[in-house]
């Protein structure tokens, strides 16, 4: 019995020991979690480190003349580690008032008492990554580093500086789609920022970070372990002045014509460098912004600007000459069950090829193509392919669409295709592709690849340069090229673009008016596209330019009236600002270069100039006032109407300002002067009876 009790006693003791041991374990767990937990968690945090990636400063984007188009400006967050080893309690208490006063005076968003309460509270909570200010500029950062406590740096003052780079565009919306952007919020990247992202981004650095209570990571050191390597700079071909002019002119045209969208591209003829690329589309609120790169990414039926390719094919194959004629059939022709019409019904029947092209006759051009290529349409299509119209240009900005030139093997190729393709329908090409073709004509037949980037620089020195690249060495023979230039000049001189003529320079080009089809309703919605493409000056081209305006809805939709004025405004401003566009003696014809230009004027003055230059003169020597016509080897003099003819408005055309003012004011007229040089026109015709005190305007131009 005693043995049995002893066994029970031992079992009970064992159970008791187990219960005590279990209670001890539970107590220890409770103690570690609730009493010493904070300490051990802090200890664990203190030994948790990682390397954080430090983004490099993104490279800049410049215009071709060195003006900044895009740059990265540093912005900073100011944080404080209130448990920094060097930030002692006494030091904090002594300087917190002065720090609060400096912060209040500097930012002016809180008073000093508010700042003090905020800092003291954060100190009491033991915050290790307290956000003091964000979005601080570099100059503000320098100032903050002089404030009490903060001036002691990271280890003594708890100062933590976090840098972030923000992309800025000094010219705001100028060339926005061309420059582009790269964002992190699932926005589709666009433009040069995307194409050259790797070059612009650079190589990131490394910084050792330590995890602190609250799960935040703070820098272990005030310097990076591996410094980031900044991105490279992109030097574009963009000319800021031309870009500004192009966008402004396009904007005015879109507003005036209540259009949906439009684009404008200006290209350097010799190199293919794009000097301006403007793209504007209407937002829901009616404002126009750069919302899409229409010049590159929108392929439409171009309409009449495509006729240049058709004329090239006809001339190159020897089917026509410029003296040949074609029957325009009063602007209406029936192709089986479809009717081809000219944009405007005209009174002409048979005209020469130059006139048919200059007046943009759909009937004339389509009949020439259909008559000569109907039995072999592939021969015509081969010309289009040799011009590269079926291939992408490979421009640097993303989004270029595939062009579409039909093949005879396509299911959609019918007997109607040839005449309609010849005038710019049943094909799809971008505005930039059309411009490249016209630029090739201006460039002596050599087609250049359009490009937007001329170099990639590192620390101000080019490490990669992009030279002009020939896309097609010769688009046609010299004979055909000469004929094409005559055709394009005729459009400006006597054709659909004659209203755009300038007295200061010449240009050549082609108007275009196309009806745009959509997938749902075809051509039923009557959506028009107005365009103009050409180059200037015509004799020694420097720039080519295309303007496309989509869906003008204010009454006009013809290319000359809607798109043409944009081209003219750009050319006018280029002529006014660039000396290279003015003709030199070497470029003038022999008969004008051989003899000086002499203004009309008083007989004694004219004769003095002629004698000094040893120039022969012919004509009237009796009149007191003379006009002067320049010949190859002599000057023809003629009498001018003068003040001697009482009560008659004198003829002052060709005179300098001084003589013109003398005659007009002595006739009793008040004179308004516009321009400089010699008088080109006068608002009241010579020989008209003078009304004393009446105003007359004279326009002067440089000869």
Can you describe this structure?
By secondary structure, the chain is an alpha+beta fold. The protein contains 23 helices and 29 strands. Strands 2, 3, 4, 5, 8, 17 and 18 form a seven-stranded mixed β-sheet that branches. It has a six-stranded antiparallel β-sheet with strand order 11-10-9-22-21-20, with helices on both faces. A four-stranded mixed β-sheet has the order 23-25-26-24, covered by helices on one side. The longest helix has 33 residues, at 2-34. The termini are far apart. The model is unreliable at 585-594 and 635-639 (pLDDT under 50).
Q: Key terms for this structure?
A:
single chain, 703 residues, alpha+beta, Penicillin-binding protein 2a (Domain 2), Beta-lactamase, 7-stranded mixed beta sheet, 23 helices
Briefly summarize what is shown.
With 703 residues, the chain is of the alpha+beta class. Helices cover 34% and strands 24% of the residues.
Estimate the helix proportion, in percent.
25-40%
Shape: elongated
First-last Cα distance: 142 Å
Low-confidence stretches: 585-594, 635-639
Count of discrete structural domains: 4
Strand proportion: 15-25%
CATH top level label of the largest domain = Alpha Beta
Total of helices:
23
Write the layout of secondary structure elements.
Layout: H1 2-34, H2 37-46, E1 49-54, E2 61-62, E3 68-80, H3 89-107, H4 112-125, E4 130-136, H5 138-144, H6 153-157, E5 159-168, H7 176-179, H8 191-195, H9 197-201, E6 205-211, E7 217-219, E8 233-236, H10 240-256, E9 261-268, E10 274-282, E11 288-289, H11 294-297, H12 307-316, E12 325-327, E13 332-335, E14 338-341, E15 350-352, H13 353-358, H14 362-373, H15 377-386, H16 417-422, H17 431-442, E16 447-448, E17 453-458, E18 461-465, E19 470-472, H18 478-493, E20 508-518, E21 522-536, E22 543-550, H19 559-562, H20 564-577, H21 590-593, E23 601-602, H22 603-613, E24 616-619, E25 625-630, E26 634-639, H23 657-666, E27 670-675, E28 678-682, E29 695-701
Parallel strand pairs: 2-8, 24-26, 27-29
Antiparallel strand pairs: 1-6, 2-3, 3-4, 3-5, 6-7, 8-17, 9-10, 9-22, 10-11, 12-15, 13-14, 16-19, 17-18, 20-21, 21-22, 23-25, 25-26, 28-29
């Amino acid at each position: 019995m005693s043995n049995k009790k002893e066994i029970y006693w031992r079992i009970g003791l064992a159970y008791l020991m187990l219960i005590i041991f279990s209670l001890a374990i539970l107590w220890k767990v409770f103690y570690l979690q609730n009493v010493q937990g904070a300490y051990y968690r802090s200890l664990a945090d203190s030994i948790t480190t990682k390397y954080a990636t430090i983004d490099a400063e993104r490279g800049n984007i410049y215009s071709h003349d060195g003006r900044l188009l895009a740059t990265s400006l540093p912005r900073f967050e100011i944080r404080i580690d209130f448990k920094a080893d060097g930030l002692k309690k006494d030091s904090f208490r002594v300087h917190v008032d002065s720090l609060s006063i400096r912060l209040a005076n500097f930012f002016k968003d809180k008073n000093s008492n508010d700042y003090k309460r905020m800092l003291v509270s954060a100190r009491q909570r033991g915050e290790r990554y307290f956000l003091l200010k964000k979005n601080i500029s570099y100059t503000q950062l320098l100032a903050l580093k002089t404030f009490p406590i903060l001036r002691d740096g990271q280890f003594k003052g708890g100062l933590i500086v976090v840098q972030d780079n923000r992309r800025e565009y000094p010219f705001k919306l100028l060339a926005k789609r061309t420059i582009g952007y790269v964002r992190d919020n699932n926005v589709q990247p666009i433009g040069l920022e995307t194409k050259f992202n790797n070059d612009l981004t650079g190589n990131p650095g490394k910084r050792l970070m330590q995890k602190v209570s609250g799960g935040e990571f703070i820098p272990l050191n005030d310097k990076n372990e591996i410094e980031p390597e900044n991105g490279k700079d992109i030097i574009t071909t963009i000319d800021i002045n031309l870009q500004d002019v192009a966008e402004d002119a396009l904007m005015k045209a879109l507003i005036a014509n209540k259009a949906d969208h439009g684009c404008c591209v200006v290209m350097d003829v010799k190199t293919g460098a794009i000097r301006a690329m403007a793209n504007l589309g209407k937002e829901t609120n009616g404002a126009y912004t750069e919302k899409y790169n229409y010049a590159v990414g929108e392929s439409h039926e171009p309409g009449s600007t495509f006729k240049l390719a058709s004329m090239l094919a006809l001339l190159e194959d020897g089917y026509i000459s410029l003296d040949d004629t074609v029957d325009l059939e009063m602007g209406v022709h029936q192709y089986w069950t479809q009717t081809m019409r000219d944009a405007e019904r005209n009174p002409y029947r048979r005209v020469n090829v130059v006139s048919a092209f200059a007046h943009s006759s759909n009937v004339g051009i389509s009949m020439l193509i259909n008559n000569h290529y109907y039995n072999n349409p592939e021969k015509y299509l081969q010309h289009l392919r040799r011009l590269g119209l079926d291939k992408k240009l490979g421009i640097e900005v993303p989004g270029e669409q595939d062009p579409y030139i039909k093949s005879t093997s396509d299911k959609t190729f019918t007997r109607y295709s040839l005449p309609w393709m010849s005038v710019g329908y049943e094909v799809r090409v971008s505005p930039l592709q059309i411009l490249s073709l016209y630029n090739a004509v201006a460039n002596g037949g050599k087609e250049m690849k359009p490009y937007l980037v001329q170099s990639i620089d590192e620390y101000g020195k080019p490490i990669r340069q992009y030279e002009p690249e020939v896309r097609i060495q010769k688009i046609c023979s010299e004979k055909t090229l000469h004929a094409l230039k005559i055709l394009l000049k005729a459009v400006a001189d006597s054709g659909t673009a004659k209203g755009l003529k300038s007295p200061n320079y010449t240009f050549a080009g082609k108007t275009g008016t196309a009806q745009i089809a959509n997938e749902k309703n075809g051509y039923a919605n009557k959506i028009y596209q107005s365009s103009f493409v050409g180059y200037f000056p015509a004799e020694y081209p420097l720039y080519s330019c295309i303007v496309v305006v989509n869906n003008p809805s204010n009454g006009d939709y013809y290319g000359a009236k809607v798109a043409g004025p944009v081209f003219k405004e750009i050319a006018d401003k280029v002529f006014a600002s660039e000396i290279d566009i003015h003709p030199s003696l070497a470029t003038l014809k022999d008969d004008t270069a051989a003899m000086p230009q002499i203004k009309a004027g008083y007989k004694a003055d004219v004769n003095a100039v002629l004698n000094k230059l040893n120039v022969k003169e012919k004509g009237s020597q009796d009149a007191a006032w003379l006009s002067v016509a320049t010949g190859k080897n002599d000057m023809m003099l003629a009498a001018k109407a003068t003040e001697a003819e009482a009560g008659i408005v004198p003829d002052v055309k060709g005179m300098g300002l001084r003589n013109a003012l003398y005659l007009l004011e002595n006739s009793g007229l008040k004179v308004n002067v516009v321009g400089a040089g010699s008088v080109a026109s006068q608002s009241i015709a010579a020989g008209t009876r003078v009304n004393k005190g009446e105003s007359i305007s004279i326009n002067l131009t440089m000869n």
